[in-house]
Specification:
Helices cover 26% and strands 19% of the residues. Helix 1 (89-100) runs parallel beside helix 4 (180-194) and helix 6 (254-264) crosses helix 8 (305-314). It is globular, with a radius of gyration of 21 Å. It has helices at residues 89-100, 106-132, 157-162, 180-194, 218-221, 254-264, 278-281, 305-314, 329-333, and strands at residues 84-86, 143-149, 170-177, 207-213, 240-246, 265-276, 287-289, 295-297, 317-326, 348-357. It has 9 helices and 10 strands. The strands form 2 sheets. It has a 7-stranded mixed sheet, with helices on both faces. A 3-stranded mixed sheet has the order 1-8-7, covered by helices on one side. Residues 1-76 have low confidence and may be disordered. Strand 7 (287-289) and strand 8 (295-297) form a beta hairpin. The N and C termini lie far apart (54 Å). It has one domain: Rossmann fold. By secondary structure, it is of the alpha/beta class. It binds S-adenosylmethionine. S-adenosylmethionine binds next to helix 1.
């Protein structure tokens, strides 16, 4: 087992084949390392069954004993106990933001690879329906409104801005996220895209961008609240033509997620949702290792594709497309993901669904 060369990077937790009975403590081992299926309740001791889906190869996390996180023998440099800190998801991303784009997160790489084809396939019908829809600007120019829900550092907002939009279309792109840290990175990253001096600026191309910091799923903490996230200017959000939400669903219960999505879309509006696959989510969750070597995690759920599709239906969506993606050996060999991706070969790590709000 290799010794980690740096600690400030994403971990994707592996499991070891133990039956765990550990508490969610900030200093003890974390049950989800061993396969907790629903990580959302950080105060609960999960009933975790051993699984042998994967081999323990995680460079950051040496195999751990059933009752402790004692160092294992890694030659002459024993690794100190790994501590885990559970934080509110918002705080987790605030702390993760500065390295989120650069810490070698293989799920982002898989998401990028899949979106190369899925995103254009998704945008084409949204585009053609916007041309024929009644959504017109004051000058009667067709307008397409797009929302990146939980946009984070703008990884995929950038793709929306860079898409080859037709010249006669007004494109309004909005990114929402509740992590100021993530949004600060997004602003820094997206500003040059909006004002590229070589080309016409995006404004000249009729593309606008708005980023707002807000809790996108207010009904989770206040079930009687409006499912529409509030934005500070008082104008509020009006339903958009299409929503993308990538790698966010992991943190949100299914019904509040799709109820919010329904509230955010015009009738027949389309949504593209990607997420960690439950096969991976059963033994892993989003998080990173901070500069002090502490694994930092928010709240996560391992939603299955079937549960996701069912919840979408219950909230008034029809399913247009479902994609599942296993890690392939080629992903590792061609460098699409780092060597840490090796342990996931053959495992489904990602899924994407395209849904349409029934009009
Ligand atoms: C794994 S990141 C994904 C970011 C981006 N969509 C991407 O694909 O790179 C999850 C994002 O969801 C955001 N998020 C989670 N729960 C949220 C909520 N209730 N309201 C707004 N944003 C939320 C987090 O702040 C974080 O930026």
């Amino acid at each position: 087992m290799a010794i980690p060369t740096d600690v400030n990077r994403t971990f994707d937790t592996s499991l070891v084949d133990f039956n765990v009975n550990a508490s969610f403590s900030t200093t003890e081992s974390d049950p989800s390392d061993y396969g907790a299926v629903n990580h959302a309740t950080t105060t609960k001791t999960p009933d975790v069954q051993p699984t042998s889906l994967f081999e323990e190869q995680n460079q950051e996390m040496p195999a751990q004993s059933q009752t402790s996180v004692s160092p294992v023998d890694i030659g002459s440099a024993p690794k100190p106990p790994t501590s885990v800190q559970h934080l509110p998801t918002q705080d987790t991303y605030d702390q993760w933001a500065s390295i989120y784009d650069t810490d070698g997160n293989m799920l982002q790489s898989i998401d990028d690879a899949e979106l190369e084809t899925l995103l254009p396939d998704f945008l084409a019908p949204a585009l053609s329906s916007s041309k024929s829809s009644s959504t017109k600007s004051a000058q009667d120019t067709p307008t397409l409104s797009l929302l990146d829900l939980g946009c984070g550092t703008g990884r995929n907002t950038a793709k929306l801005l860079s898409y080859a939009w037709p010249a006669n279309l007004l494109v309004e792109v909005m990114g929402l996220d509740f992590s100021r840290g993530m949004l600060d990175v997004a602003r820094t990253k997206l500003r040059p895209l909006m004002h590229n001096s070589k080309d016409k600026s995006k404004e000249e191309q009729n593309i606008s961008l708005r980023l707002e910091c807000t809790d996108c799923f207010p009904t989770i903490s206040h079930p009687s609240a409006s499912p529409l996230p509030s934005v500070p200017d008082g104008i509020g959000l009006r339903p958009v033509d299409a929503v993308i939400s990538t790698l966010v669903l992991e943190h949100i219960p299914l019904l509040p997620f799709f109820a919010t999505l329904a509230a955010l879309l015009v009738p027949n509006g389309l949504a593209l949702v990607t997420n960690m696959h439950a096969q991976m989510g059963a033994v892993s969750q989003a998080g990173f290792v901070n500069a002090r070597g502490v694994k930092v995690r928010g709240s996560s759920f391992a939603h299955t594709v079937e549960e996701t599709v069912q919840a979408a239906g219950e909230c008034g969506f029809e399913v247009v497309e479902v994609r599942e993606r296993a890690m392939s050996r080629e992903d590792v060999e061609c460098g699409r993901v780092g060597s840490r991706g090796g342990k996931w070969v053959g495992v489904k790590v990602w899924f994407g669904v395209v849904v349409r709000k029934v009009g």
